[in-house]
Design a protein that fits this description.
The protein is α/β, with parallel strands linked by helices. It is 23% helix and 28% strand. It contains five helices and seven strands. A five-stranded mixed barrel has the order 2-3-4-5-7.
Length: 172
Amino acid sequence: MIHLQLPLRPEDVAQLRAGDEVLLSGSLYTGRDAAHKRLAECLERGDPLPFDLRGQVIYYVGPAPARPGQVIGPAGPTSSYRMDPYTPLLLDNGMAGMIGKGRRSQPVVDAIVRNRAVYFLAIGGAAALIADTITAKEPVCYEDLGTEAVCRLEVRDFYAIVGIDSTGRSIV
């Protein structure tokens, strides 16, 4: 098991190989397709992003509402292909990794290799267990999107598997 601190450093990403199991701790961001579209539009217009992408990991999740006393509700991964139209641009602007489920398109794999990034797989169907690794949640932007708003999550020992490593090797 590889323990990684977020945000990711280039040397962290370089050591990872497809199939490695990791425990992620630190800050990551949430975002699904609607938020990705807005982020891409900002970049295309030349506007600053609402947060610095460099070294960051985006978790493809739209968490369920939290029950009283909880930080977050069930928080399972979303199918990653929905973000594929926007992912190369975000990677080209400093994003270091993504967490989701499922296959990625060839343009995304090419962008992962070009930017020496990583794609992590989270286990679908484990939304309640994943929520237990999230210790804090803070809205960042696009709150009008509801559960699809971009939030910063603090995670401790978030389990993931390297699905595509920085050389393009894949287990998906």
